[in-house]
Write a structure and sequence with these properties.
Length: about 260
């Protein structure tokens, strides 16, 4: 960064005078370096202007205010001593979802001649900037609050499907709501009398079972029946078995320690 603060200040003031409409310097001096990050966060450009503010936090930045809440930031272009970066700033007091799907207007590099720079900004930046601002204001009018996903409605009936260790998916018969039984039959679940449960046999392939379970969930939820999934409680290990003892009077087999020698 080679240009002086005086050069940037004079350039930004002259640029504001040559832009169409009423533009002026927001500060006579420059925002302090500690304020560069908030300015960088508002730069409506993910390119060189944003990088310059973050990579050179002590470099001066000039802010220009224009009509209809338009704002431009002006800074030196790193490694290009006779050029500046001019980028639009996002409007304040809007929520993130108001900017969704809005095309960024982006900034441009301009020569150190304020007249030529103003002509380039008026032709290449301001039209895109104004279209983007109009889109943000439109989004704020039609959807003031974020489109948060609503919570699931409360249900009176719930079915819990259980994943069993042998690969079977099912539910004990008594836990299956009556309104859900025909849906399960239609999705290939079977009633197993000796298990007293509705089961989807493990003989189906993984993909087939996934499709059948998906169909069952879709049909059940469409009827207002909630569906949960649980893994079966693993069977607890039994007490350790003791090795069999040799009967009295039998001879030890090969590889078995013999009785104490006399």
């Amino acid at each position: 960064m080679t240009a002086s603060r005086t050069d940037l200040s004079a350039f930004a003031t002259a640029l504001a005078q040559h832009l169409p409409g009423q533009w002026y310097r927001k500060y006579e001096g420059f925002p302090p370096p500690k304020n560069h990050r908030p300015v960088a966060d508002r730069v409506w450009d993910c390119g060189p202007a944003n990088s310059a503010l973050l990579d050179f936090p002590d470099a001066p930045v000039a802010l220009l205010d224009g009509p209809d809440d338009e704002q431009l930031c002006v800074t030196e272009r790193p490694r290009y001593p006779h050029q500046y970066l001019v980028a639009p700033l996002e409007p304040e007091e809007f929520k993130p979802h108001h900017f969704r799907y809005v095309d960024e207007p982006n900034g441009i590099a301009v020569p150190h001649d304020p007249v030529r720079a103003a002509a380039a900004v008026a032709r290449r930046v301001l039209p895109r900037y104004r279209r983007a601002l109009e889109a943000v204001h439109h989004n704020a009018r039609v959807q003031p609050e974020p489109p948060h996903r609503p919570a699931a409605p409360e249900v009176a009936l719930t079915l819990t499907l259980v994943w069993y260790p042998d690969g079977v998916v099912g539910a004990p018969y008594r836990s299956v709501p009556e309104d859900a039984r025909m849906v399960l039959y239609g999705c290939r679940f079977q009633y197993s009398p000796h298990e007293a449960a509705f089961v989807l046999p493990a003989s189906y392939s993984t993909s087939d079972r996934a499709l059948l379970i998906q169909s069952a969930v879709r049909l059940l939820t469409a009827q207002g029946i909630g569906v949960n999934f649980r893994h079966a409680t693993p069977a607890s290990a039994g007490p350790p078995t003791r090795p069999p003892t040799a009967a009295l009077g039998t001879q030890p087999t090969a590889g078995t320690p013999s009785s104490a020698r006399r």
